[in-house]
């Protein structure tokens, strides 16, 4: 599998990354290089091997259901660019 | 052309935990904005999610209640999209391997039972809330809800009408509240439905192109939205247009659905396993403990009510429509009321009054044992049915016992044969014309005479006795 420049632009847009016209070719080449490595991995016979979803062979740790966090709004909002009535303000979003 | 409607539902249920799914913030609804948003919830750099055991347990409860497979190992994934109420830039959800797979729910439409298969149910975190009021051209973000545990329940596209979709949503709503994993509060968004709707010519195998109606938070709106959407799709196709896959919103004011986004700019979520969270492992012992602690489920209870109390299927279904109603019924019978009379009173007067006052049966001013006493007074002939309804009204208002009201207001039914005979003799003497009518073969005149006797006794005469004595005297 190899990517086209259109794919690169689309992926960049989905990730909110700015990739200008001169960078597109370079990114395309790098990404396709990674895909080359993946192709090599895919050549390995993995018949009967359970797909790995995590690098470490551990189970998820679970915590008891207790609410212990206190209200730290003032501290968190002190570093926010804009707040009002306890809300974070962001550029207008309309569905 | 005959059209067939195809509907599948995705329902987001908020799990009723104390704390959030990945942080120790409170999940309480309605507090000051951002006062329940911790460093994890607002996604400050360097924080890590830690899974809430209770959220997993509730998912297991649900899976067992619908006879689904509980995956011994399930995986959390990142669902990537950008929106200001999702501070991490991704939602932690489950993708390839959800915690619950399969399962079934039985719905009833008219007098037909139908089994709906479920695809899956997966754990995920809720997003925050955007406030679109005017903040000098900006939007406000409240992250109190961010990280609230959700179980998203996905059905197969097996419903064939709005009525079936509503019945399914109601069945699920009743089940999740029954087993206590969700408070079911639709106004507060604890139970939100996305409905996938398509139409196809009757008999066609392939599905039509579907449109998804997002975020319906009442059964009434769901019904309106589906009916509108189905009609719209059929008209489009009959006018020669093709349906484009899209996400739409229902506007309750206009009663119409409108496009939110088309397939072209549909989200590409680029799911991948979340490296912050190793696989969720659920062992046999845990599942068995949850199984042993599950309450009796509505279907099993319905069957038991029919066999144990000898009441009809309809009664059993109505009485098990909520856990509170079922336990109220059982308590009434346990306190000595006849099983069928108790059913009639609860489905009739009690439910009607509760509905009128918009109260839940759990807060009924007349407790189960108080109702049982009233029913016992009907059973032992102290009062007749009609008087009992008046007594109930007074019990409801004043909170007095049935006996106290019967005593105070002198409502005891007249069962003394001598007294009843005296009343009947008076009535017969005063209504000679009616007696003649009856004797000449007009059966209706008999009922009129019974009515006169009841009136003369101020409603206190035992109706069965009046009938009997009257027949004897006229015979």
Automatic annotation (TrEMBL), chain A:
This is Aspartyl/glutamyl-tRNA(Asn/Gln) amidotransferase subunit C. Belongs to the GatC family. The gene is gatC. Pfam families: GatC. PANTHER family: GLUTAMYL-TRNA(GLN) AMIDOTRANSFERASE SUBUNIT C, MITOCHONDRIAL. Allows the formation of correctly charged Asn-tRNA(Asn) or Gln-tRNA(Gln) through the transamidation of misacylated Asp-tRNA(Asn) or Glu-tRNA(Gln) in organisms which lack either or both of asparaginyl-tRNA or glutaminyl-tRNA synthetases. The reaction takes place in the presence of glutamine and ATP through an activated phospho-Asp-tRNA(Asn) or phospho-Glu-tRNA(Gln). It comes from the Bacteria. Its EC number is 6.3.5.-. It is an enzyme of class 6 (ligase). The keyword Ligase applies. It catalyses: L-glutamyl-tRNA(Gln) + L-glutamine + ATP + H2O = L-glutaminyl-tRNA(Gln) + L-glutamate + ADP + phosphate + H(+); L-aspartyl-tRNA(Asn) + L-glutamine + ATP + H2O = L-asparaginyl-tRNA(Asn) + L-glutamate + ADP + phosphate + 2 H(+). Keywords: ATP-binding, Ligase, Nucleotide-binding, Protein biosynthesis. Gene3D superfamilies: Glu-tRNAGln amidotransferase C subunit, N-terminal domain. Heterotrimer of A, B and C subunits. NCBIfam families: gatC.
UniProtKB/TrEMBL annotation, chain B:
Residues 327-474 form the Asn/Gln amidotransferase domain. The keyword Nucleotide-binding applies. The keyword ATP-binding applies. It comes from the Bacteria. Its EC number is 6.3.5.-. Keywords: ATP-binding, Ligase, Nucleotide-binding, Protein biosynthesis. SMART domains: GatB_Yqey. Gene3D superfamilies: 1.10.10.410, GatB domain, N-terminal subdomain. Pfam families: GatB_N, GatB_Yqey. It catalyses: L-glutamyl-tRNA(Gln) + L-glutamine + ATP + H2O = L-glutaminyl-tRNA(Gln) + L-glutamate + ADP + phosphate + H(+); L-aspartyl-tRNA(Asn) + L-glutamine + ATP + H2O = L-asparaginyl-tRNA(Asn) + L-glutamate + ADP + phosphate + 2 H(+). InterPro entries: Asn/Gln-tRNA_amidoTrfase_suB/E, Asn/Gln-tRNA_Trfase_suB/E_cat, Asn/Gln_amidotransferase, Asn/Gln_tRNA_amidoTrase-B-like, GatB, GatB_C_1, GatB_Yqey_C_2, Gln-tRNA_amidoTrfase_suB_CS. HAMAP family: GatB. Heterotrimer of A, B and C subunits. Belongs to the GatB/GatE family. GatB subfamily. Allows the formation of correctly charged Asn-tRNA(Asn) or Gln-tRNA(Gln) through the transamidation of misacylated Asp-tRNA(Asn) or Glu-tRNA(Gln) in organisms which lack either or both of asparaginyl-tRNA or glutaminyl-tRNA synthetases. The reaction takes place in the presence of glutamine and ATP through an activated phospho-Asp-tRNA(Asn) or phospho-Glu-tRNA(Gln). This is Aspartyl/glutamyl-tRNA(Asn/Gln) amidotransferase subunit B. It comes from Chitinimonas prasina. The lineage of its organism: Bacteria, Pseudomonadati, Pseudomonadota, Betaproteobacteria, Neisseriales.
